């Protein structure tokens, strides 16, 4: 649905060049809630502005439903942009206009009939749960309510894509969750493809099915959310995952078990393969497995986390068990070896 092919973007200002995007390629499928995560300055906003052609790439192409936006006339481009809604961190509402008129604006610009506009605006305000605020002004609303209005306005022209640029960064955690639930409903009920730009991994964890990690204008890792959380490849990705699934073992967990001489301590991923391996060790070797600590997190209806286990027994069996758990597919990591 959205294809970015070898996109580079160079900003030139006062004789200085900044390369905001370096040969970025990305495919977002219809129905995805696709997250793009990165630290400040990674190039996320630049990337998302390429998708609706708010800015054009220095090189490379943007294809929406297979059509190259580069080849569009200005009129065709405006038409294509109507199919892409966008919401922002600071909502970008017009303070001098009522909520009704803010939501109506894209329809007024599209020269829709008055009755069509009225029906659509009221339908959207009902959808975002703010029908009673039609005659209020933006500064009479809370941040969460303002973002709901931003969402209603973005949906006014019935887009098939919604871009969200740090849309929950100015909101408290509870309000963030309610906006994320609303985005999920939009994705499911209206079948709208959503692209989310964020610096918070918890946002990706809660609603995205795919994720790309950006660093210094490049996509350094991309994949299904479960795979990326379960097996992050790059250092920056691991740091982001850590913010949701901490992998430091608390001192208290380690000080509470007895260091039996000859026992060995391992850290393993919490997954089916590791569970089967531990069962194998218990069944086939004369080894006791003590569970010292575990963390678990729900990602896309799957459990992701890790556990710390202690192997206790005679040294031959403990060593055999350790060898088995350190195999390639299990990759148990020894602590204090
Ligand atoms: N209009 C512009 N003119 C010049 N440089 C720009 C412009 N927009 C962005 N940049 C530069 O491009 C790089 C990427 O910026 P961008 O805003 O895309 O990053 P970001 O990941 O969205 O960061 P943040 O989360 O802080 O918004 C930065 O070095 C920034 O200074």
Model description:
GO terms for molecular function: ATP binding; ATP hydrolysis activity. This is ATP-binding cassette domain-containing protein. Belongs to the ABC transporter superfamily. With 337 residues, the chain is α/β, with parallel strands linked by helices. The protein has 2 domains: 2-242, Rossmann fold, CATH 3.40.50.300; 251-335, 2-Layer Sandwich (Alpha-Beta Plaits), CATH 3.30.70.260. It has 12 helices and 14 strands. The protein has helices at 44-51, 74-82, 99-109, 114-127, 143-155, 173-189, 201-207, 225-230, 235-242, 251-255, 272-284, 315-325; strands at 2-13, 16-28, 33-38, 59-64, 67-68, 84-88, 161-165, 193-198, 210-215, 218-224, 264-269, 287-299, 302-313, 333-335. The strands form 3 sheets. The protein has a 6-stranded mixed sheet with strand order 6-7-8-3-9-10, sandwiched between helices. It has a 4-stranded antiparallel sheet with strand order 2-1-4-5, covered by helices on one side. The structure holds adenosine-5'-triphosphate. Adenosine-5'-triphosphate is lined by residues 11, 13, 18, 20, 38, 40-46, 199.
Gist?
This protein is of the alpha/beta class.
Fill in the keyword field for this structure.
337 residues; alpha/beta; Rossmann fold; Alpha-Beta Plaits; 2 domains; six-stranded mixed beta sheet; four-stranded antiparallel beta sheet; 12 helices; 14 strands; 30% strand; binds adenosine-5'-triphosphate
